[in-house]
Specification:
This protein has one domain. The protein has 6 helices and no strands. The longest helix has 12 residues. GO terms for molecular function: enzyme binding. Its main location: nucleus. Pfam families: AROS.
């Protein structure tokens, strides 16, 4: 219930003799306090419509406005959607898309992968070593 409806209801229920008298019937006061009382009477707000408000305007809650404009994190829903699908792109296609989206600056480039060195194995087998030992040192 709005304040204006309450005020109107109180005006209707007010006793007929207690209302404000018409301006011609008011008694003038010669006391020193008369000017202060007149000022107070003049400054007292009359019941009625507040001119500062717009008709039909609703006061918005600052918290609701904040929640409405706050950024929403869609990561969980997007992951669920992406993982739900059965089609998985091949690694070559994935690399191609990533390469297209990558910038040309060095900071945008992925770190270069160092080629793994294969441990160099010997060409000779254990039997070859025994054979060489027999021939060179003369042991059986």
């Amino acid at each position: 219930m709005s304040a204006s409806l309450v005020r109107r209801g109180l005006e209707l229920l007010e006793a007929p003799g207690r209302g404000r008298a018409p301006p011609g019937l008011q008694r003038g006061r010669d006391a020193p306090r008369a000017a202060g009382a007149a000022r107070r009477r003049k400054a007292a707000p009359e019941p009625g419509r507040n001119k500062a408000t717009v008709k039909g305007r609703v006061v918005k809650s600052a918290i609701e406005e904040y929640h409405k404009k706050k950024a929403v994190n869609h990561l969980r829903a997007n992951l669920r959607y992406m993982l739900k699908g059965r089609f998985v792109a091949s690694k070559a296609v994935t690399e191609q898309v990533l390469a297209q989206n990558r910038g040309r600056k060095s900071k945008d480039q992925p770190p270069k992968k160092a080629a793994k060195k294969k441990p160099e194995g010997t060409v000779f087998t254990e039997e070859d070593f025994r054979k060489f030992e027999r021939e060179y040192f003369g042991r059986p």
